[in-house]
Structure formats: C-alpha cells, structure tokens
Amino acid sequence: MKISKLKIKLDEKVLVDIDFNISSSLALVGQSGSGKSLTLKALLGMLPSNMKLELNYDSDFKLKAGETLAFVPQNPFTALSPLTKIKKQFFIQEDKIKKLFKQVDLDNELLQRFPPELSGGQLQRVVIAMALSSKPKLLLLDEPTTALDPKNRVIILELLKSLQKELEFKILFVTHDMTSAKSLCENICVIRDGKVVEYGNMKDVLQNPNSEYTKTLIDANFANRKFRE
User: Fewer CB within 10 Å: C terminus or N terminus of the chain?
Assistant: First the structure.
C-alpha cells in the first residue's frame, strides 16, 4: 500500500507532511518529536480534535482501526486491565482465542490468569494475539519491544516475522531503535520534524546513509559499522 499524503496541521502549522510505501514491512524511524506518534494516531483515527488530517492512500483495503488495521502498543504492562482475567479481555470466542494463543506460543492455562501474573514477554504475546484477532491487513507496531529485556526483545521480533510470513499482513514499525528496525523490516523511512529525510531499502540505507541525521541515528545504535550489514 502507498500513502501518497499524510499531512497533519494544528491551526496553520504543519506538524507532519510525509509519504511512504509499505510493500511488506516498513520501519518509520526518528527521534522523539519527529512525528512518529502523530503518524500512528492519524492512521488509527486518534488525532486530537484540534488537529486536521489530509490522508490519501492507494491500497486494496480500506484503513479501518479494529478491522483491517490493528495496533500493538509500546508497553504491554499498561495495555491490559490488571484486575481482569486474560480470557475476559478478548472479545471473541474461546476456541478462537486458543488458536491465537497457539500462534503466539502461549499456554491456554494463562487465559485464567490476571496480567500481573504474567511476564513481560508473555504479556506482549497476549497483546499481539489481541491485535491479530481482527485478522488485520496492516499491523502497526509502536516500539513493541522497548519494555522487554534483550532476550525477550529478540524472541518477540522473531515471532512477529514468523507471524507475518504465516498470516501475510503488512507491518509499519514505529521506532527510534535502528537495531530492532533492521531485524524486522525490509525498508526504512527516516523522518525529522515531520518530514521524510531518507527512504529506501533497509540494508542500503544502513550501509550508505545520505543524510547527516540518518548517520547520527545509526551511530547512536551501532557501535561498529559491521553490525549494519
């Protein structure tokens, strides 16, 4: 799918004005305040009422949150109600939940537990299962490994790659972490102050960045050039 225009304005000030293509998996990368979160909110239809959105796209499906579009938040610990059993936080039949749990490699026994009784990695798998329950065409990921330890971070990224291959959804991965972006995504779009400063194949951009801003982001993530390859 191609986003030909995503423009967000507050009064007359343009906050975000970008375009990009998601052929399979795209990392939207930038520092805090670059416009990543606003882009996510725009796609999810969650912009504040005082902001105006112009959104033009070419796709074989309509962007609709909760149907063709699903979201995995940054922190699984705050994404679920701590006082409600996992089973009760899904809005689908139990047999379908169990099928999703199998896909994300979770034991059905966890359905009877409360979120505080699960580990961070388990909770993130639950949240991913919830996102997949609507059989989305596009999965929006908001730094889904930030709250996890290094081991679980790798496991979750590998799980997402496996699920994408199996279920054939597209991924938009919003992050400032080049390492995770490299692990998960085919292409990368670097934004700064609401503008695209670099776009292209992940490997090509990491090896030969054109903008100083991109180089700064890469240097902040990779101690050694060889790890970009």
Answer: C
One-letter amino acid for residue 201 of the chain: N
Q: 128 and 163 in contact (C-beta within 8 Å)? A: yes
- Confidence band of 223 (pLDDT split at 50, 70, 90): low
For 23-63, where are the E strands, in sequence order?
Answer: 25-29, 51-58
* Per-residue pLDDT at 227: 46
**DSSP structure string for 153-207:** HHHHHHHHHHHHHHH--EEEEEES-HHHHHHH-SEEEEEETTEEEEEEEHHHHHH
Q: How confident is the model at residue 2, as a pLDDT?
A: 95
The two tokens of residue 228 are 């970009």
Percent of the chain with pLDDT over 90: 82
Q: Is the pTM of this model over 0.90?
A: yes
> What's the CA gap between 202 and 197, in Å, rounded?
14
Q: Which of 180, 67, 87, 75 is nearest to 131 (CA)?
A: 67
What value does the mean pLDDT of the chain take? 93
Mean pLDDT for 118-133 is 95
User: In which residue are the tokens 């074989």 written?
Assistant: 60
Give residue limits of the domains in the chain. 2-223
**CATH number of the 2-223 domain:** 3.40.50.300
